[in-house]
């Protein structure tokens, strides 16, 4: 579903996100000397960010395809997602994960 | 004629195998932008100005769903928070860089550039740190830009019934699996994922799912770490 935001608004989002991302990347590179390192508790919390965030981006996309939770084999995204997860686990390759996931989706959609 | 520093070439050579993961990811980011109604220039803007694949893809999906702009930007910040760790961890090696070099190095900081450079700095005190870093990080930048642009042009011609929008969650899945490296982070992922599902299924508006799931998931990871000992 295409966005309803106009082109200028999207540019605004890009610039603001770009500036904030640069600030995160540069934070300690510039602050060094004033702040020596991240407190250990904060460091621990940051280590769990990728797992929590990436899972939050994956789970709803495969478990809630049309606005309601669907755990049946009729949910083609769930089947494709599980097979892609197995591929990701064994290969740790983005390319293989995409091929297995999209391939499964197409087989379920066009062949089965 | 100036010669290319050998450490820069080492960096380019070391990062080459990682391009295999970057190219499909960049293609998906380009395709997703066009599929969500953004222009090819927007796709290029995301890749050059933000230059952080996972957050770009998350923002593109949220823009496509007309999420509030504060949520779009907030999600990007949350997705990129892990880079605070990289910044702190690599800063001692960048301490002697000139101000401009620090700016360039900060802009180019990615998971891959961080991981490869830190490994190299640790094993060898003789490396020209900036040259090696640029070899890794700038070649990643070039490959990322080219693959996003290719994806954006390709995306316009893809038939909608093929469901290419599903490639975006598949990329996140490929990023998720290696992030589940111990019990605490696996808990963090499982709780974060289930909380996100609950928030979406409950029909809670504004696409708060990612930010809420991040907070609860990180909390769950910390709880397991403090209980379990062998985090």
From TrEMBL, chain A:
Pfam families for this protein: AzlD
Keywords noted in UniProt: Membrane, Transmembrane, Transmembrane helix
Transmembrane regions listed in the UniProt entry: 12-33, 45-63, 83-108
Top-level taxon: Archaea
UniProt-listed InterPro entries: Brnchd-chn_aa_trnsp_AzlD (IPR008407)
Protein name: AzlD domain-containing protein
Organism: Haloferax litoreum
Lineage start: Archaea, Methanobacteriati, Methanobacteriota, Stenosarchaea group, Halobacteria
TrEMBL record, chain B:
Membrane topology reported for the UniProt record: Multi-pass membrane protein
Main location per the UniProt record: membrane
Protein location: Cell membrane
Coiled coil: none
GO biological process: L-valine transmembrane transport
Transmembrane segments: 15-34, 41-63, 69-94, 130-156, 162-180, 187-204, 210-228
GO cellular component, one term: plasma membrane
Top-rank lineage group of the source organism: Archaea
One Pfam family it belongs to: AzlC
Key words, A-Z: Cell membrane, Membrane, Transmembrane, Transmembrane helix, Transport
Entry similarity comment: Belongs to the AzlC family.
Protein name (database record): Branched-chain amino acid ABC transporter permease
Species for this entry: Haloferax litoreum
């Amino acid at each position: 579903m295409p966005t309803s935001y106009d082109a200028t608004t999207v540019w605004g989002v890009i610039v603001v996100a770009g500036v904030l991302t640069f600030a995160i990347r540069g934070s300690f590179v510039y602050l060094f000397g004033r702040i020596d390192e991240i407190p250990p508790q904060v460091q621990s919390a940051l280590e769990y960010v990728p797992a929590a965030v990436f899972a939050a981006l994956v789970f709803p996309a495969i478990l809630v395809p049309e606005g309601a939770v669907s755990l049946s084999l009729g949910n083609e995204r769930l089947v494709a997602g599980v097979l892609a997860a197995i591929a990701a686990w064994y290969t740790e390759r983005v390319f293989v994960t995409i091929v297995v996931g999209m391939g499964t989706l197409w087989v379920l959609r066009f062949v089965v | 004629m100036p010669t290319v520093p050998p450490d820069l070439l080492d960096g380019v050579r070391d990062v080459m195998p990682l391009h295999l993961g970057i190219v499909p990811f960049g293609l998906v980011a380009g395709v997703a932008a066009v599929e969500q109604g953004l222009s090819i220039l927007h796709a290029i803007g995301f890749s050059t100005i933000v230059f952080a694949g996972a957050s770009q893809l998350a923002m593109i999906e949220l823009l496509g769903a007309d999420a509030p702009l504060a949520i779009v930007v907030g999600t990007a910040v949350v997705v990129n928070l892990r880079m605070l760790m990289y910044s702190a961890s690599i800063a001692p090696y960048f301490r002697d860089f000139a101000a401009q070099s620090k700016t360039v190095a900060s802009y180019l900081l990615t998971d891959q550039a961080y991981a490869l450079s830190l490994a190299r700095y640790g094993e060898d005190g003789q490396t020209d740190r900036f040259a090696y870093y640029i070899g890794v990080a700038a070649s990643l930048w070039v490959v990322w830009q080219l693959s996003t642009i290719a994806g954006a042009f390709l995306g316009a011609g893809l038939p909608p019934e093929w469901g290419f929008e599903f490639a975006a969650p598949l990329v996140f899945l490929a990023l998720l699996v290696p992030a589940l490296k111990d019990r605490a982070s696996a808990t963090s992922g499982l709780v974060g994922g289930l909380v996100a599902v609950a928030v979406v299924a409950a029909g809670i508006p504004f696409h708060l799912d990612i930010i809420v799931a991040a907070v609860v998931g990180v909390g769950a990871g910390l709880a397991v770490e403090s209980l379990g000992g062998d985090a």
